Prior knowledge:
Blueprint: H1 2-38, E1 39-46, E2 49-56, H2 61-72, E3 79-85, E4 89-96, E5 123-126, E6 139-142, E7 163-169, H3 171-178, E8 182-185, E9 188-192, E10 197-204
Antiparallel strand pairs: 1-2, 1-10, 2-7, 3-4, 3-10, 4-6, 5-6, 5-7, 8-9
Amino acid sequence: MNINxxxxxxxxxxxxxxxxxCADKTNIKEVEELTEKTMTQVTIKxxxxxxxxxxxxxxxxxxxxxxxxxxxxxxxxxxxxxxxINGFMVQGGGxxxxxxxxxxxxxxxxxEANNGLSNDRGTVAMARTMDPHSATSxxxxxxxxxxxxxxxxxxxxxxxxxxxxxxxxxxxVVDQIADVATGTSGGYQDVPEDVITIESVTISE
Length: 205
């Protein structure tokens, strides 16, 4: 009887270990699927190299959908990085090489800077005017931690700039862009002397 009891206990224990193992694998798979659903992969092909981004669909759904729609329309092709400040940020997605504004044809979006994401080095955020909810197509990549751009309150002074993703590869390209010589052109300051073109923005589904 003792042998049978022990065998039964061992079988039951083995079954529990198997079930726990399966549950762990299921949980891992669910986490991986959730990550895939809440992160959009993007490749920005520039004239000086590629920049890979991971966009946070969960924290910035409005901003990510707006960016994806504009990118998929082909709008970003031929726009430039028109504002570059080393040790601050590199900005693009709104002007052409002749320094003319390019309209995205989209309406301004709700500012999602209150999503808990910070303007740290390598993060991507939406550029805007003094109106907190005026962002359309222009974006910037933070070249260093810029805490003063973060959300502090829902008022004109405190809204901040909405982070919606981060660079996963190609920060060396961002550093290269940030290091170029700049000047004044077409009424704009901090313009790269040598044009840096966005050749394409590709969304990976």
